[in-house]
Amino acid sequence: MEDLIVRSKNIELSDEIRSYGDKKIKNKITRILDKITKMELKLTFEKNPRINLNNIAEVTIFTTGSVIRATDSGADVFEAIDKVSSKLGRLLKKYKDKLVDRGRRGNSRKEQGIVGETDSIPKSIDEKIRDSIVKTKTFNLKPLSPEEAVLQMEMLGHDFFVFINSETGRTAVVYRRKDKNYGLIEPSI
Question: Fewer Cβ within 10 Å of end Cβ, the chain: N or C?
């Protein structure tokens, strides 16, 4: 069983906070999921006096093939942990139901070792645009069905998700539309 890694920013981590996070988060995760590779709890205190719920708890769970993330805030660190634990329980139940449903349909998918190529940034890019790129992220693309990609996007809490469509073998993007539905972008060559 994997240990819960607790990190903090602007908060003094006491043994009481660590054990409370361990009890509320780790126990909930291990009751629902069994193939966990890593669990993280990040606690942050926002110093802005205009923010009422300035204690933020973010949980990230790495499983074999998926990443699940939940974030919530509270007036104190314990309230934030309680809220994120509740939100995490709903996400994990949804994730587990999808896995069980996929197993019932008999949707078997071959794991292919396809790794996406990253595009290089053109040398003639305007300096102002270059300075506005504040983060670069690299990741391995996995072959997924569009439905699995939407599930992964929801588990991460993102608005879009890049993946290799297992049906076409091409890189694709699913995204959340303003009307709460989803869109799929696929390139044509």
Answer: C
> What are the residue boundaries of the structural domains of the chain, listed by start?
4-105, 127-185
Q: In terms of DSSP H, where are the helices of 35-109?
A: 77-105
Dihedral angle, C-alpha 74, 78, 80, 82, nearest 10 °: -120
**What's the predicted TM-score (pTM) here?**
0.57
Least Cα distance to 21 among 33, 4, 37, 38 occurs for 4
Mean per-residue pLDDT pooled into runs of 10, the chain (189 residues): 82 90 85 82 87 88 84 92 91 80 53 36 56 78 90 88 91 90 88
Task: Map residue 94 onto helix, strand or coil.
Answer: helix
Q: What is d(CA 180, CA 182) in angstroms, rounded to the nearest whole number?
A: 7
Tell me the residue type at 174. Answer: V
**d(C-alpha 15, C-alpha 27), whole Å:** 17
Burial class (CB in 10 A: 0-12, 13-18, 19+), 117: exposed
| Residue 89 burial (10 A CB sphere; 0-12, 13-18, 19+) | middle
Task: Give the C-alpha separation, 105 to 30, whole Å.
Answer: 26
Q: Which of 89, 87, 97, 94 is nearest to 29 (CA)?
A: 89
At 60, is the secondary structure helix, strand, or coil?
Answer: strand
- The CATH code for residues 127-185 is 3.30.505.50
Rounded Cα gap, residues 114 and 132, in angstroms: 31
